[in-house]
Amino acid sequence: MKGMNARQCRRVRWRLSEVVLGDERLSVADERHAAACLSCQAEIAHYRTIDRAFTALQQEVAPAPPGLVSKVMAGLDRSPIRWFRRPVAVSVSAMSAVAVATTVAVAIRRRHAAA
Amino acid sequence: MENPAVEPVDEAHLIRTAQTGDRSAFEELVRRHQHGVFTLALRLVNDREVAADVTQDAFIRAWRGLSRFRGDAAFKTWIHRITVNAAWSMKKRTGRHRALPLEGAPPIADTTLSGDLERAGENLELRHRLRAALDQLPRPQRTVVVLKDIYGWSHGEIAETLGITVTAAKVRLHRAHHRLREHLEGES
Q1: Interface of A with B in 40-79 (CB under 8 A)
Q2: pLDDT tens across B87-120, in order?
Q3: Quick one: CA torsion of A24, A30, A32, A36, rounded to 10 degrees?
Q4: Whole-angstrom distance, CA of residue A109 vs CA of residue A113
Q5: Domains in chain B and their CATH numbers?
Q6: Are the CB atoms for A50 and A21 separated by under 8 Å?
Q7: Which of A31-45, A94-108, B5-19, B113-127 is predicted with the least confidence, judged by mean pLDDT?
Q8: Which of A76, A87, B64, B96 has a CA positioned 20 to 30 A from the CA of residue B127?
Q9: Is A5 exposed, middle or buried (0-12, 13-18, 19+ CB in 10 A)?
Q10: Measured between CA atoms, how close is A52 to chain B, in angstroms?
Q11: Gap between the Cα atoms of A33 and B154, Å rounded
Q12: Chain B stretch 12-71, residues whose beta carbon is closer than 8 A to a beta carbon of chain A
């Protein structure tokens, strides 16, 4: 019976985050366990604290940098930012360098083999 | 900053005008939503410089896709989805992940000036700890937490916008919550 309680406790504690922070519901049996279990109560208290912190974070606003509106308006005729431009350019150069190095190495090896 | 009650021009009218190609109407929309979009971008990328780029990119994408905006959802919801896509594709393509904790950046302003100093202090402490914990999360987990727990998106909306399944969104969120809890517990 003790083992079953421990298993139930682990299972309930695992689900408590989505019960407190989300919209999951416990079964009646699990609810009864959570109400009587100190570990589960401690877990619920932790997640309620996190929930309060999220509510507090919802009120925050980060002011946009000055001049952002002008930058946006000036950029309307340009293409959207091409985030991949640099990495692609870098990877193409790197691949070219590797290809040249491999060709040179193969040529040297063949010359040595022929000699 | 985004209080429609004090805005002189109706947003729906601004959108319709901007859809005809009127830049000044679109500029007014940018002016109204810049702080909200920047805040979301900052929460997702955790770097003010990159967040400004994401914000700019999001508005440019919005301008280009404005004709497709039907008004089924609020403009704010629409531009936020574009912002998430912009942040997501930027991160995915460049792998840029300059970890600059938010507390190292200029502070995010609290819009609720409470007269209750004790509660305000507790909120500040909680927010500080949660931000630090969020900084520790891997990017995919952080994204779902920001969208679900701060912006109140549904699992379905998150899944659709990020191109993942609802189950994947739920699993990420569940793991993220457990990590947050462990981090906060380890701190105290």
Answers
A1: 43, 46-47, 49-50, 52-54, 56-65, 68-69, 71-73, 75-76, 78
A2: 988 766 555 444 444 433 444 555 544 456 666 6
A3: -100
A4: 6
A5: 1-97 (1.10.1740.10), 116-188 (1.10.10.10)
A6: yes
A7: B113-127
A8: B96
A9: exposed
A10: 8
A11: 29
A12: 23, 26-27, 30-31, 34-39, 42, 48, 51-53, 55-57, 59-61, 63-64
Interface test with A, best of B43, B80, B103, B127 (most A CBs within 10 A): B127
Positions of chain B with pLDDT lower than 70, given as ranges: 1-8, 91-120, 122, 187-188
Q: Which amino acid is at B35?
A: H
| Token representation of residue A7 | 């298993």
Percent of chain B scoring above 70 in pLDDT: 77
Q: Where are the domains of chain A?
A: 2-58, 68-114
The tokens of B79 are what? Answer: 């531009």
Judging contacts by C-beta atoms under 8 Å, the chain B residues touching residue A61 are 1, 35-36, 39, 108-109, 111
Contact A30, A5 (CB under 8 A): no
Tokens of A113: 């083999």
